[in-house]
Hints:
Blueprint: H1 27-32, H2 42-48, H3 83-88, H4 109-116, H5 124-129, E1 133-138, H6 149-163, E2 172-181, H7 183-200, E3 208-212, H8 216-225, E4 236-237, E5 248-251, H9 254-258, E6 266-272, E7 277-279, E8 295-297, E9 303-306, E10 312-322, E11 340-344, E12 363-364, E13 368-371
Parallel strand pairs: 4-12, 7-8
Antiparallel strand pairs: 1-2, 1-11, 2-10, 3-6, 3-13, 5-9, 6-10, 8-9
Amino acid sequence: MASPGKKTNATTLPTCQYGAGCYRKNPEHFKEFLHPPKASTSTDKTSKGADSKTPDANSKTSTVDDTSLPPCKYGASCYRKNLLHFAEFSHPTAVVRKASQDSGSDTDPTDKKVSSGQFLVDGEKEALEGKDTVYFTLTAERNHKEGSAEQTHFRLAESQFYRLLSGTNNNYTIKKVEYVVNPDLIAKFKQSKEDLKKERGEELSYPVLAFHGTEVKNISKICNTGFRVPGRAGFKHATDTGWYGKGVYFSEYPEYSMHYIRGAEKLLLCQVLPGKVFHCKKLIHGAALSKGHDSHISPDKKELVIFNSHHILPCYVVHYKLSSGEFIYAKTTPGVRKTTKKTRKAGDDDDDDDNDDEEDNNDVDEMSLMYLYSYFNVN
Length: 379
């Protein structure tokens, strides 16, 4: 890196292997590496000479596709194969570079849309400004409504549920999805993400989307007050002492979770922050968090263990059932909004859970379903 007292000559900087499609958002990265439209070797740059018009990281002429769709953070280098993703995001040659100049805040396009009010379901803005937990009920819709926050949230939860179901056992149908908005938990999660970013660096600060399975009576309590982890009153493992540490467990495959939820048909889909992960090589019954790490993962990498309640944000309650034939869209009336909401104050339970013992809050079963995005790193 050039010394602070000297101006860096852009031609002396090494070229980032991702070129203009680089997914990183750290301003320092763009000061230390060139990002030409096509990653080139030093020989290529020499042959082009001083007349080369390759833009550097601070160039304001980066190319972006002229489209009404929000840009994918990976641009033309996007690794995804899901056609739905390409229908909802544009993939320009270069991701908008203005994000790289922001001062350390999270520059994820979706977060920007949420903060600006562009990506909120009807009523979510008021929910975020309040103190209560609000649930927005979402269902499958036949019509594609470009830019619909309701459809995007539903399809995200739906795709996460179906993605890792094995072909022979893929006989489930999603009835509905409840989108959970808890202002207090959201604020704590965002702060934890920023803290993790400062401590571990950006690459280890991305969240992971994960399903957690538990008894139905625990779901609303978790959504209202968050997860209980070691050190908090009422914490206990329902099935064992915690094979890979005493924390909250997640698993990659939905069938694994379903075996432990006692016939229930609801799963929680959460964002979790793995941070620096300790890879267990054997059973470590009830062990505390490994020093210098933020989470544990099982030997086969099918179970992720989170130890900090602020590193978990409940986002969706997925209601599913066994399939009984072809899928049929629910009947809707033109002009009637499908999204509904219900509000619960912190500490309130479902109407049918009034007699639950408070100690049951977050009986942590070793059952959850998790899918790791490439950009939500667990190393």
